[in-house]
Amino acid sequence: MTQHPELTLTENRPFQTQRTDTWWLQPLAVFLGLGTFIVYATFRVFEGAHFLHGPYLSPFYSPLLFGTDAHTVTHSWFGMMPDWMPGLITPAVLILWAPLGFRFTCYYYRGAYYKAFWADPPSCTVSEPRKGYRGENSFPLIVQNIHRYFLYVAIIILGILAYDVWKALWFDDGNGGTTFGIGIGTIVLAGNVILLGGYTLGCHSLRHLVGGVIDLLSKAPIRREAYNCVSCLNRHHMLWAWMSLCWVGFSDVYVRFIAPTFDKVWIP
Predict the structure, then answer these.
(1) Does the pLDDT value for residue 111 go beyond 50?
(2) Hey, how many other C-beta atoms are within 10 angstroms of the C-beta on 256?
(3) What is d(CA 65, CA 41) in angstroms, rounded to the nearest whole number?
């Protein structure tokens, strides 16, 4: 009779496993991908400049509540940044808590960065470097339960970003008016809305909101169709999450590179 090796972990050594595959590749890729985005986003959020070019507004700074100079103040909601505002508070700091909070509490991203950054656990059947497990029922991880409320704000911001695409269709004609057109930036910002829409509208919480409460979706045909649409996006939630994350970063990079003062910053 064939003897099978013991499959349970009998010692509590960090990263102990009987797996022979390259299980560490996925958490490493997540660590590098998210780490790169976090470093770049932190730099851009506190830079507080080069986020507007013509009708193109970086998604990192949308909605633009306050402007920082004569050029950006004409596109802001409430005029110039107040003088009493601390220097570290940029227009991006005022609004990025919402989309970042939505991603940070996202069901997919939790599983991704728990493994990649906290090794909790590093992967399936791989021992983690701690003995206790408290789950998400105590501080600080209990905060993850507010994901459904971040969803409401994320949908509003998605609508604002879609309006930014509309504004990106109208260019200064040089005579004090505007003219319709489609530039590369228009396409870049439109792609950002499409990918963010696929990610946001495929959210697990939205799927529950659309299909929850009632027992038989067949008795609510409109909700059933909405549930099927959300479920279709939800099946590829991880793909939407990464594509939208990369594209929102690319959108900011694009606006950053074509900003009027870019050459003054990077070229001696």
Answers:
(1) yes
(2) 20
(3) 19
Would you say 204 and 213 are in contact if contact means Cβ atoms under 8 Å apart? Answer: no
Tell me the two tokens of residue 62: 């949308």
Backbone angles phi, psi at 48, to 5 degrees: 65, 25
Q: Is the pLDDT of residue 145 over 80?
A: yes
- Dig out the tokens for 101 from the structure: 């909070």
- pLDDT value, residue 264: 42
Query: Cis link prior to 27 (omega < 30° from 0)?
Result: no
Phi, psi for residue 99 in degrees, rounded to 5? -65, -35
Report the pLDDT value the prediction gives residue 263, as an integer from 0 to 100. 41
Burial of 42-65, coded b for 16+ CB within 10 Å and e otherwise, reads eebbeebbbbbbbbbbbbbbbbbe
Domain ranges of the chain: 25-258
